[in-house]
């Protein structure tokens, strides 16, 4: 259960439950926050707490103000000395991306740690509310969460009755990797009327070989890239004209930061994805 309101035990104290199910309590609103993933940084800014963020990791590039933040390493190799030097009163980590041993060390050093890892779209809204509580920016965070839920519901209603499109979504080229139905991107695919052809695999981000993709024969292939305008991963699939996606020119690029980060911008990427799958329907 979300502990949304601050606790009355001590004046100013506030407690929430993080995405790992742990209670995080602060004696007062956080004023010096270190964010350990690009997604966590975006969430904090969206929750109205951008002015409270004192450091982030590499590739935390949205919004524009985040690019000016001091860096404390990369999401998978944190610089512990730099984190401590910032004297944070809250650290926002990424459970499935940061090193578990480094997150445990942060906790062992007595730093308040909120573990962020939204698995479904509604948890993005919940994260905004929780982070707003911890930062004392509840009004802005709650308003943004409400806008996000409304926009998600509108998009879902718009595509509710569309014919299904069988989709392979690529998140990495070597080895080729995709997502299963437990990963948040698959919810975007579902909202758009898509069916993830590898959704039933056990791993959250399965590794694939070319033969398995040829056998699945998706109607559409969607990929990110190494940059916001790099669609080079799709070139590999143009070689296989036996693929339905290739034969019908249903090879689509979506800017990765708009759909692969669990932040409010995921609805921008979902809208683009929906438009691409609608194009695939027209190509039938």
TrEMBL record:
InterPro entries found in the cross-reference section: ABC_Transporter_SBP, ABC_transptr_periplasmic_BD, Vit_B12_bind_prot
Keyword Signal annotated: yes
PROSITE patterns: FE_B12_PBP
Residue stretches making up the Fe/B12 periplasmic-binding domain: 32-284
Annotated SUPFAM superfamilies: Helical backbone' metal receptor
CDD domains, per database record: BtuF
Pfam family, one: Peripla_BP_2
Alphabetized UniProt keyword annotations: Signal
Keyword RNA-binding attached: no
Protein name according to UniProt: Periplasmic binding protein
Species the sequence originates in: Halorhodospira halophila (strain DSM 244 / SL1) (Ectothiorhodospira halophila (strain DSM 244 / SL1))
Lineage: Bacteria, Pseudomonadati, Pseudomonadota, Gammaproteobacteria, Chromatiales
